Amino acid sequence: MERLTDIIALVGEETVRAIAGLIGVLIVVVVNAILLTWAERKVAGHMQRRIGPKEVGPYGLIQPFADTFKLLAKELLVPKDVAKPLYHLAPILIFIPVLVSFIVIPFDAQLQVKDINMGILVILAFSSLSVFSILIAGWGSHNKYSLIGAVRSVAQNIAYEIPLLLSLLAVIFMANSFSLKDIVEAQKGLWFVFYQPIAFLIFFVAGVAETNRTPFDLPEAESELVAGFHTEYSSMQFALFFLAEYTNIFIVSAIATTFFLGGYSGPVLPGIIWFFVKTYGLVFVILWFRWTFPRVRFDQLLNFSWKILIPLSFINLLVTGGILKI
Amino acid sequence: MVRETLEEIKKELAGVEAIEASYAEKGYHLAIAIDKGSLIKVVEYFDRKGFYLEDLLCVDYVEYLELVYFFNTYHTLCRVKVALKLEPEKPSAPTISHIYTIAHWYEREIHEFFGVYFEGHPYLIYLFLHDGIDFYPLRKNKIPVSEEAKGLLNSFKPEEEEDSFLVNLGPQHPSTHGVLRVVLKMDGEYIVHADPVLGYLHRMQEKMAENRNYSQFLPNPARIDYPGALLLNLAHVAAVEKLCGIEVPERAQYVRTITCELNRIASHLLWLGAFPADLGALTPFLYAFDDRENILDILEAITGSRLTYCYFRFGGLYNDVDDNFIEGTKRFIKRMRERLLMYEKFVTKNVIFINRVTGIGILKPEVARKYGCTGPTIRGSGILYDIRKVEPYAAYNRIDFRIPGGETGDCMDRYMVRMAEMEICLNIIEEAVKNLPSGPYKTDKVPKKLKPPQGDLFHAVESSRGEAGVYIVSDGSDVPYRMRWRVPSYSNLMTFPYLSQGLLIADAIAVLGSYDIVVPEIDR
Question: Which residues, 6 or more positions from A237, have their beta carbon under 8 angstroms from its beta carbon?
Fold first, then answer.
């Protein structure tokens, strides 16, 4: 014990916290993604009058692990004409912003890697980076389907980042802080979803669009573009895109929980359980969307953002600001 | 009605040899023999009168080739056969593709199978046999392909231009329902031009028919249109029965009607699964297949197969239906009615779905006529043309049913027509089951070896995609001299380049899904 304190003293508390946090985040990311693939297949199964995976392990719980190992063991197939550096960079690059976002999310009152006073800005800044990796993947793949998917993705992400930000800004006005922890603490009385129902809806819709999920899954619309920007990826590179997608779903739900549903606060049970219950509740809704809705068309998607969501979020922001001022 | 039309045609086409044919025996009302010079004049006349080009085919009589044009109208049944004799040496005929757009494809097909050159055809390249073979497959004598025609092999070479790029939709693509390939010339997300490439599933069913006798060909129609196998099975059986003058017992007619309508629902359900899946909604697929499974179980019990049925025989059925079938059908009707309400709630009223299909791919009636479209595709455009009504076969004339129609002819209308059709099919089945007469299920007067008398015959049925017709030329032997299949998806698909022009790629997928095309049927 003494030695441990010595080491901490030697390298500094910050470093130890960072390393422990990194390991923790990696575990959460991987376990979450694996659980979500399982959940997605189960949810899809039950919504489609079938059972879903059930053979490997109890309720098929081991199935995603088996799939992961299968993907790991597969050959990395690189098509002939790809732009090699870009092609290999994209799957790695898509994963970094995902990891960074986890640093500032408060899982519990004490359980947070680092409480940065600009927390939400870190998440938003880094999540915009994922557009880059999609564009790089699409460009580097030397495939027309990939390119169209990537171009769609960029247009979509730019369009939906604005309402996403504006809707969060309304909450930031109310909490008077950019720190995620402060925002949770500010909801001790009543959750912000009751003050800001419109902002919550806007955020959730824009969040689904940001994660490229149905009904906004245009970058990977399988009936039009085969698999979109990741058409040419195989093996673990493909798995990384998948991992990033599921982690993004988690992050969007986690931010929604933190900003609108009171984060980790809740009676009786420990905070971390409340956090995960709320987050996975929202994740379930996103999965539910996918197996219920058809896909919107590209122009409808953009119109919806520019003509409805953005004006609406501006009005919401103005009203919020006005009321707070008075 | 028919009388007047025929008199009018005869009067106005003075100088052309027109012989009235016995409709009961031939399946067409009027046979007109023309020469090359008057072809365009006659075709233009039919175009003016609002006829559509039902079929265009060629028969090799060794001494001469005969081009046969079938014209029909959407309002009354008035089928006219126009025959043009050609020299067997270097045959050529003027093109009619500038009058009827669908002739583009029919003429390309005849060109590669018979070596007939169509003067003035803008794009006379291979339709099915892109790599080609060194003789004309449907000619009776082995005629080598001319050097000139060989130059056209593999001549389909689409080129990109400065502001556009090409995208291959298929032949392996999730939304082309089989192995259709469409080469899209794109300007960003917009389609500049679409070019369907056929032949990936070409099996030359028409040549196969010339090599086996009538009963040996029985299983083949099911391979032409696999989701609606019984309907094409009936087309073949009924055509041969008409040719040989075989009477079919009343009970068999009713059972044919019931099983055909069940098959039609199964086919529509397959489409109901695939269409929303094209639009990104995957769940309806599983629900539709759940319902379809019920039909397959019912049909399996009496026919012995689940997809490629061969249940009808000349003069009746393979075996009689039992109480299980009747009970199962009644149960299914009850269940399906509830399910249709559910589909209406979850698919038809879905806002995203409505926004995706309304106003997309509008097919105007006049355009549909130029392309010879049939089935739900034109009924969506408001042309209430249904072979079951205008030219009743089996027991359809004893059953009262209505034909659903759309107004604008967009994807939504085509969708609604098919949904309404399923409901009407249920009514037909219900009534047919109620009135199912007892008695023999087949006649025992059918000889083992069928030798129909010399002559030709056209018979059409309403398949789940439109008018499926079979034209048989018999030379008195037990093998058909020529068997030609007129398939609905062929003409329906040809409107795709027209409808998809200027659309977003996502809309084009919706249009393609709304046709309910079956590629093996197109390629034959």
Answer: A76, A88, A91
* Residue in B166, B177, B185, B279 to test binding to A, most A beta-carbons within 10 Å: B279
Q: Which residues of B touch A292 (CB under 8 A)?
A: 281, 283
Q: What pLDDT score does B278 carry?
A: 84
Same domain for B369 and B239, yes or no, is yes
Res B505: pLDDT: 84
What digits encode the pLDDT tens for the residues A236-245? 888 888 888 8
| A127 and A39 within one domain | no
**3-state SS assignment for residue A155:** helix
Question: Inter-chain contact A214–B280, Cβ cutoff 8 Å?
Answer: yes
Q: Using a CB-CB distance cutoff of 8 angstroms, which residues of chain B are in contact with residue A44?
A: 282
Name residue A135's amino acid.
L
- Rounded Cα distance, B135 and A87, in Å: 48
Cβ distance A297 to B281 less than 8 Å, yes or no, reads no
Interchain pair A297, B504: CB under 8 A: yes
Q: Where is the domain boundary, A40, A73, A106?
A: A73
Strand bridging mode B30-34 / B466-474: unpaired
Please indicate whether, in this complex, the C-beta atoms of A223 and B175 are within 8 angstroms of each other.
Answer: yes
Domain count, chain A: 2
Q: Are B439 and B304 in the same domain?
A: yes
Instruction: Give the relative orientation of helices A13-47 and A271-290 as an angle to the nearest 10 degrees.
Output: 40
CATH number, domain of B98, equals 3.30.460.80
pLDDT at A43 over 70: yes
Burial class of residue B144 (count of CB atoms within 10 Å of its CB; 0-12, 13-18, 19+)? exposed
Domain holding B390, by residue range, is 218-446
Cα angle, residue A5 at apex, residues A115 and A16 outer, rounded to 5°: 35
Q: Once rounded to an integer, what is the mean pLDDT over residues A175-184?
A: 81
Q: Final residue of a domain: which of B153, B182, B207?
A: B153
A223 with B281: Cβ contact below 8 A: no
Which of the listed residues A49, A73, A97 is the one where a domain comes to its end?
Answer: A73
Average pLDDT over residues B192-221: 87
State whether A65 and A84 are in the same domain.
Answer: no
Residues of chain B with a CB closer than 8 angstroms to some CB in chain A? 165-167, 173-175, 189, 276-283, 285-287, 290, 350, 352-353, 355-356, 504-507, 509
User: Are A105 and A151 found together in one domain?
Assistant: yes
A291–B286 C-beta distance less than 8 A: no
Kindly calculate the radius of gyration of chain B based on its CA atoms and give it in whole angstroms.
Answer: 23
- Residue B316: inside a domain: yes
Question: Which of B153, B181, B206 represents a domain boundary (last residue)?
Answer: B153
Number of domains within chain B = 2
- The answer to whether residue B463 is domain-embedded is no
Q: Which of B175, B189, B352 sits opposite A296 (nearest CB)?
A: B352
Going by their DSSP bridges, the two strands B466-474 and B455-463 should be labelled as antiparallel
B179 part of a folded domain: no
Query: Does residue A39 sit in the same domain as residue A112?
Result: no
pLDDT in tens, B78-119: 888 888 888 888 888 888 888 888 888 898 888 888 888 888
Q: Are residues A177 and A303 in the same domain?
A: yes
- Overall average pLDDT of the A151-156 stretch: 85
Question: What ranges in A176-269 are assigned the alpha helix state H?
Answer: 180-186, 192-195, 197-210, 222-225, 235-260
Q: Indicate the residue of A148, A226, A293 with minimum beta-carbon distance to B281.
A: A293
Domain range for residue A67?
Answer: 1-73
Q: Is the pLDDT of residue A2 over 70?
A: no
Do A245 and A137 lie in one domain? The reply is: yes
User: pTM for the whole thing?
Assistant: 0.85
Tell me, what's the pLDDT at B175?
A: 62
CATH number of domain containing B355: 1.10.645.10
CB contact under 8 A, B280 and A48: no
- The C-alpha of A285 sits at a distance from chain B's nearest C-alpha, in angstroms, of 16
Cis previous bond, B404, omega within 30 = no
